Structures are given as structure tokens and as C-alpha cells.
Amino acid sequence: MSDKVQFELVSPERLLSSELVDMVVVPGSEGYLGVLPDMSPLIATLQPGTIDIYKGTEIQRRIFVAGGFVEVSNSKCTVLAETAIDVAQLHRANIEQEIKDLNEDVADAKSDDERAKAEAALLLAKARLQAVTGELVV
């Protein structure tokens, strides 16, 4: 039995992080999932949200992911993320402006396809804002 989890974060381009941690919390499509040492194996899809990386009982780092998959096996947690951004690199004012612009894009959409693309981008922007503020964005 190990007392740590080997956490790996992989983007389509490269390995972004590989470290031993006490716990990882990932935004699974069915809700947030805490990964501890010696967990039962599983594979799940991710929803847009934050990964919280714990060292001891404190969150050491927070990473926003836009989607992907998580695989847990024994004492290893591998996240395959479509997009991964350290929450410290996200800027609230920029995201709020992006949300304002995307709301206008949704309102001005000339086709269902344009509207769907703008709405999808708007949902991701709101998830990034929630990662920064910790508050639910509607």
C-alpha cells in the first residue's frame, strides 16, 4: 500500500505534469471524483472544471481542464486533457469580457450552427470564470 498517488497530466501535445501527491480531485462528468492511494481502477470522462492537487491536507495547485478522460489504476491517476491551464494564469477581467462578447455572439447568431458554437464557447468561458472565482456562474 502506498500513501501517495502518482498524478500525471497529459495534453495532446505532451506530458504536462508528473508528481507524487496525497490526493487529486477531478471534475468527472458525473461529479467531482477524489482519487486517493490504492483506489479501485476506473475510467471516466471529464467535464470542464478544475483539478485540485493536494499535498497534505492543502490544495497545492489548481488546473482548469476543458474536458478529456481520467484513468485511475492502483496508486496512479492519469488525466488526458483536451485543454489544461493553471488557474493562476487565468485572469478574471479577460474572462468576464469574453463572456460578454460571447453573449453578444449568441444573440447575433444567424444560424443554429453559429449559435451552438457560441453557446459551447460561452459554457467553457463560464467554467473558467467559476475556476477563478469559486462561485457558480449562470
H/I helix tally: 2
The ordered string of helix (H) and strand (E) elements is EEEEEEEEEEHH
CATH class descriptor name of the largest domain? Mainly Beta
CATH T-level fold name of the largest domain: ATP Synthase, domain 1
CATH-level-4 superfamily name of the largest domain: F0F1 ATP synthase delta/epsilon subunit, N-terminal
What does this 3D model show about the protein?
With 138 residues, the chain is of the alpha+beta class. It has two domains: 5-87, ATP Synthase, domain 1, CATH 2.60.15; 91-133. Helices cover 28% and strands 43% of the residues. It has helices spanning 92-108, 112-133; strands at residues 5-10, 15-21, 23-28, 31-35, 42-46, 49-55, 58-65, 68-73, 76-81, 84-86. The strands form two sheets. The protein has a five-stranded mixed sheet, with no helix packed on it. A five-stranded antiparallel sheet has the order 4-3-6-7-10. A hairpin with a 2-residue loop joins strand 3 and strand 4 (31-35). Helix 1 packs antiparallel against helix 2. The longest helix has 22 residues, at 112-133. It starts with a strand and ends in a 5-residue tail after the last helix. The model has no long low-confidence stretch (mean pLDDT 92).
